[in-house]
Structures are given as structure tokens and as C-alpha cells.
């Protein structure tokens, strides 16, 4: 019946054909000579009844079709339905060619709306950490007359007499992937101190740029990246390790004197093969303190004058570093990893001079370094050493000259993963350095020996507490002071991560 679906005029035309098809049959049944008017009347009445019934059924089918149309497009039903209608009303089946085709409606295709691009706040995330520190010189040369060294450190200007609490770092980090090829990293520090203010007062809480770079992934594969901007220079394992992740409170003089502030402006490329990344991922999942993913191989060029300092010559500092973790399961040390590597730096630098400005002469600033780290599982060792040539003030001549340098450290540590106070790391570190310090005025000579015992407690993921006790022998970073100061220092730090 659903084939009779073209509308009322078409239906009535079809019904007329059906009715006409029955007339000859009725005429054959009647007497050819005598026509019975009553029989004709009955035939007409019967045809009219059939037409009325067909009209009623067509209306029902049309109502059903209108109801079903929004749900799905109209389709031509099977011809098997047509004989059923004909049998009900005594009409013969129409041949397939005589069937009235159903009008075809355009299929309704659901158009998927394009994905909404992520907003900037969905691509970037904000995090950071703050370090509140207490330094106390408990014995020794906290002060001294003019021309004599006092007990000071190049890593923390608040190791001095008449000091209590201070902010060592107040960092905010904005980072994220802009797309699969570019990511950004931005980090200022709000705990920088500035000297030489009015009346000679030292001011703290100054904001300073630390990192501002973009990582470019040329192939979309993050195993290889090119870093553009101000970032850490790949020389020295502990230089690259974040201060929020390092056990000791400050970096050692021997390694950090190569790159005070650890950063410079330039371009550097890093590559990390998949096997190396797999080992580092396992160590990170275990909670080990890594140096950060600066690549198993890194090489770059930088200005060479130092963090937030204006470039003063046309030369570039070239740096290269390689590090590789070896799993020691084959030696029966299941889970242990030994990482070894080295770095090289070639540069020329112009130190600041006492008379003002920078030296008109640039000096060779070249180093070679080695490092090794046995991750604590539960005991570990860590050490670095470097040799080279750098600028150093000569008191005999009163001039800056190129002099040899050497120094490094050895650190032993252990890890207790679970305890009533949280996981903790006891450690001991000895450091040594002989050489110039290019970041200070006139590049004074440093002579450092220090033994430090400490413990870091990870109360939870948001709070870390560190306490150290050290025996130090140091020459102050001032070419106008002589000799070495000695003393003992207690230091306590609270770090909260957010």
C-alpha cells in the first residue's frame, strides 16, 4: 500500500484504473441481452465503498509518513506490500512498472562542527616554588677588619653576620605547548638582591628574568628540540639541575663559577634517544632527583657574558655536553643506574672592573668537565670535576690575567622512601675550588674547601625541609681582601611548591 504515496490526485487516478479493471469482469457475469438496473446500482455502490475505504487508508498512511519523516528519509518499500492491499479489496496487483514511485527526499546528513580551538589558558600552566632560608654563622670569621676575608659564599649573599631570615628564591613558571611544534617557558625570580642603591643600602625582593625561551620541535618528535632565548647553558650536571630538586642548598664554587646564574641568551639543540628517555622516565616515576631533561646530547652557542648582562664582544660562547645513564641490572645491582658524561666550553669574557664598566680586553674562559651519578637506591654517589683557564685578578700586578683553574665536589647520599616524617635524604658533600670568579668585580681568586652534612625531608609533595651543618674555609670574592676565613655554618630552608 505504501507504493500509493504520491498524494490524493495520483491516488484517485490509480483507484480509477483499479475500478475500471473490475468492470469487464462484472459485465461478463451479467446477461448480455438484459441489463439489470439493480445489479448496476449494486456495482456502482460497491465501487464507491471501495473508493471511500481506500481514501481512508491513504489518509492514515499519509499521517504516518508525516510523523516518521523527521526521523529518517523516505525510502521506497518492498513490492511485497502491494499484493496485500489488492487482496484485501479484490483489486489485482499492479505491475512494477505501473507503481507510483514515492518521492525521494534528500538524506539528512549531520554536519560535525569543527573542534573549538583551545584557549590560551588551556595550553599554558602556572606553577612555582618559594624558598625561605635561615643562615647562621655559629663560629668563625663572621666579620673581619678591612682587607681580611670574611666567611661568605658566592651561592648565597645572605651568609653573613647580622642576618636571620631571607627569601632565597621566589619563582613563578609559565609553560606549555602552543602546538605540536612549539612550546614556551617563562620564569622570573622575585627574590633577587640589588646593591649600590642610595646610601649604599642593599635591596632585596627585586624581580629578575631567569628563563624566557621557546622550544621548537622541527619534526614534531620531542626527542629533538631547538631552544631559543635565555636558558640554562649545558655545562655542569648540578648547574642544570633545578634548585628545587637539588639536595644541597647551593651549587658548588668549582662548577658554578663556570656559569654564575647558569643562564645566558643563545640557541641550543638537545637530543634524547628513546632508550635514554625510557631510563629517565623510570627514575622519575621512582621519585629520583634528575637534572632535568636537557638531552643526552646538547650543543649550543650563547653570548658568553653571563645572565642578564649586555654582550661586550663579537665572540660567541660554544658549549657541548653529553650524558648517558647505564642500567646496572646485569651486574647484579637491580634497579641501579650509573650516569656518566662530560662537557666542554670555549668562550671569551670581559669582567667588570673596579674603575667602572667592563674590561676593554676579553679573556679566555675555557673549561672541560666530567660528571658521574649513581642514583641512590638506596645509596648513591655523585661527583663532578672541571679544569680550565679563566680571568683572575693578580694582586702582584694589579691586573686581570688568564690563569688556570680547577675544582669540583664529591657527594654521598642515601634515600629512605617511607618513614613517619615522610621520605628523606641524608647527604654529605665535600667541595674544592682554586681559580678566578669572573662574575665579581675584577674577577677575584677563590680558594674554597668545605664539608657539609645535611638532610632533606619531603614532608609531602608541597613541602620540603632541608637542614645542613658545614665546616668552611673560604677566600672572599673580593680582590681587596686577603687570606681565608674559616667557620661553621648552620642553614635551614623550607621550600613550598605550587
From TrEMBL:
Residues 37-64 form a coiled coil. SUPFAM superfamilies: Porins. InterPro entries: Porin_dom_sf (IPR023614), Porin_O/P (IPR010870). Keywords: Coiled coil, Signal. Residues 1-27 form the signal peptide. Pfam families: Porin_O_P (PF07396). It comes from the Bacteria. This is Phosphate-selective porin O and P.
Amino acid at each position: 500500500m505504501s507504493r500509493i504515496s504520491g498524494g490524493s490526485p495520483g491516488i484517485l487516478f490509480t483507484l480509477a484504473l483499479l475500478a475500471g479493471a473490475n468492470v469487464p469482469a462484472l459485465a461478463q457475469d451479467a446477461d448480455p441481452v438484459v441489463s439489470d438496473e439493480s445489479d448496476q446500482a449494486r456495482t456502482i455502490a460497491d465501487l464507491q465503498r471501495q473508493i471511500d475505504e481506500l481514501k481512508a487508508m491513504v489518509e492514515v498512511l499519509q499521517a504516518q509518513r508525516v510523523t516518521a519523516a523527521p526521523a529518517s528519509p523516505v525510502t521506497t518499500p518492498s513490492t511485497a506490500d502491494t499484493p496485500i492491499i489488492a487482496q484485501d479489496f479484490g483489486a489485482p496487483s499492479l505491475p512494477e512498472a505501473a507503481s507510483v514511485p514515492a518521492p525521494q527526499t534528500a538524506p539528512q546528513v549531520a554536519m560535525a562542527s569543527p573542534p573549538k580551538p583551545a584557549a590560551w589558558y588551556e595550553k599554558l600552566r602556572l606553577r612555582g616554588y618559594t624558598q625561605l632560608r635561615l643562615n647562621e654563622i655559629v663560629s668563625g670569621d663572621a666579620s673581619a677588619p678591612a682587607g681580611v676575608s670574611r666567611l661568605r659564599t658566592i651561592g648565597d649573599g645572605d651568609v653573613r653576620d647580622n642576618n636571620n631570615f631571607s627569601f632565597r628564591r621566589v619563582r613563578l613558571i609559565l609553560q606549555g605547548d602552543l602546538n605540536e611544534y612549539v612550546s614556551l617557558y617563562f620564569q622570573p625570580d622575585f627574590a633577587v638582591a640589588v646593591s649600590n642603591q642610595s646610601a649604599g643600602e642593599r635591596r632585596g625582593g627585586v624581580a629578575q628574568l631567569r628563563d624566557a625561551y621557546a622550544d621548537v620541535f622541527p619534526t614534531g618528535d620531542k626527542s629533538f628540540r631547538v631552544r631559543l632565548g635565555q636558558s640554562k647553558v649545558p655545562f655542569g650536571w648540578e648547574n642544570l639541575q633545578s634548585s628545587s630538586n637539588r639536595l644541597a642548598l647551593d651549587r658548588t664554587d668549582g662548577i658554578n663559577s663556570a656559569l654564575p646564574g647558569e643562564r645566558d641568551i643563545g640557541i641550543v639543540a638537545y637530543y634524547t634517544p628513546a632508550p635514554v628517555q625510557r631510563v629517565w622516565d623510570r627514575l622519575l616515576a621512582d621519585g629520583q632527583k634528575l637534572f632535568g631533561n636537557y638531552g643526552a646530547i646538547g650543543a649550543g652557542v650563547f653570548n658568553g657574558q653571563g645572565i642578564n648582562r649586555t654582550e661586550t664582544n663579537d665572540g660567541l660562547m660554544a658549549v657541548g655536553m653529553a650524558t648517558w645513564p647505564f642500567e646496572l641490572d646485569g651486574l647484579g645491582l637491580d634497579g641501579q643506574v650509573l650516569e656518566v658524561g662530560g662537557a666542554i666550553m670555549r668562550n671569551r669574557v670581559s669582567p667588570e672592573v673596579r674603575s667602572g664598566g667592563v674590561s676593554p680586553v676579553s679573556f679566555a674562559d675555557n673549561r672541560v668537565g666530567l660528571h658521574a651519578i649513581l642514583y641512590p637506591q638506596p645509596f648513591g654517589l655523585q661527583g663532578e670535576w672541571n679544569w680550565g683557564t679563566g680571568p683572575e685578578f693578580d694582586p702582584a700586578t694589579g691586573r686581570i690575567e688568564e690563569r688556570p683553574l680547577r675544582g669540583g665536589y664529591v657527594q654521598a647520599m642515601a634515600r629512605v622512601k617511607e618513614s613517619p616524617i615522610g621520605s628523606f635524604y641524608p647527604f654529605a658533600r665535600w667541595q674544592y675550588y682554586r681559580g678566578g670568579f669572573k662574575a665579581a668585580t675584577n674577577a677575584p681568586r677563590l680558594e674554597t674547601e668545605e664539608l657539609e652534612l645535611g638532610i632533606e625531608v619531603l614532608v609531602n609533595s608541597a613541602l620540603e625541609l632541608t637542614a645542613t651543618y658545614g665546616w668552611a674555609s673560604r677566600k672572599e670574592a673580593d680582590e681587596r681582601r686577603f687570606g681565608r676565613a674559616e667557620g661553621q655554618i648552620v642553614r635551614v630552608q623550607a621550600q613550598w611548591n605550587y
